[in-house]
Amino acid sequence: MNSGLQSLLTLTDYIKDVSSQEVVWCSLREAKLIRKLIDILRCHRSVDSSLKLKALYWSKRAVSKQAPEFRDHHQKDAHEFLTTILDQIRNLSHLLQGVAACEDKSYTCPVEDHLVFRMQNTRTCKSCGAQSTRQEDFSNLSLNLAPGGSVQQMLQDYLMETALDFHCECGGNKSGQQSTFATLSKVLMLHLKRFHFTPFLQLEKLSDPVDLYRELLVTSAQADGWYSLASVISHLGSGGNEGHYVSDGVHPDTQLDDPADLWLTYNDAMVTETTGASVCKNGSERPTCSTKDG
Predict the structure, then answer these.
(1) pTM for the full predicted model
(2) Which of 247, 242, 269 is closest to 77 using CA atoms?
(3) Mean pLDDT in runs of 10 for the chain (294 residues)?
(4) How far apart are CA 103 and CA 7, in angstroms?
């Protein structure tokens, strides 16, 4: 919970967008999760640990109402927890737009406005060249780990054409499928798949190092976009059934281009100062969680 929420709070423009629409979501009973997350924001810098624990408890209760897998206190996946929060906020969009309309106001879903992008999948028959396309919205991408590679390389691998068995009207049964970005988001969340199942169905962690850079170039049908690293969530531990999550993020009082390069490492109750350069240098074995558009 801590690593996911700290990473989310690092996205200051996203948080401001949520807070600025309080007049809409404050009165909707179903929007309890948003209210509890803002409670966490308001006590973020408090030294009162009991106040923070109370805010976290009620936030977890709100998430668990629709996602019962988070009701207990067993270890969970940080990526799943974070995407669950985003999905639940996004699912409130229709209700909140209705509330806003009744009050002659407007509501823009912060998840859709900041994190959602559109991918286009194109299937091409290798015999006749016939193509079919479909588009789908995403709030994050999960990338296969490329040992010793960079996140840029893993994203390029994801976008490469892959072979596909498909029976075409021409009689051919071999096609290629390729994904491209149709649109780009303000914030791009990437998840590196460090866990996989062995042939004996045992969960295993891949500990191969990854080159982590401050900038990421993404090409779309609209335009090219540069993203600057803003936050990283890391799993510490050798196995898939145990370990610990920590988060590194840009200091809330600084900008991404601040020459001081001040970042914070959130390790449960312990918060220490670091730099983005150190995160990239020392975090080669850590999975990237999110980047923020520069």
Answers:
(1) 0.90
(2) 242
(3) 94 95 94 96 92 95 96 91 97 96 94 97 94 96 90 95 91 93 97 87 85 93 92 88 91 88 94 94 54 42
(4) 33
Angle formed at CA 71 by CA 66 and CA 193, multiple of 5 degrees: 80
**In sequence order, which ranges of the chain are alpha helices (DSSP H)?**
2-10, 12-20, 22-25, 32-42, 49-66, 78-91, 93-102, 110-114, 151-158, 276-282
Distance (Å, whole) CA 41 – CA 47: 13
Q: Please give the C-alpha separations between residue 253 and each of 8, 26, 31, 229, in angstroms, as whole numbers.
A: 15, 27, 28, 16
Distance CA 136, CA 182 (A): 9
Helix or strand run (H / E) with residue 271: strand 270-275
Q: What tokens were used for 202?
A: 């045992």
Q: Which two tokens stand for residue 169?
A: 């009207």
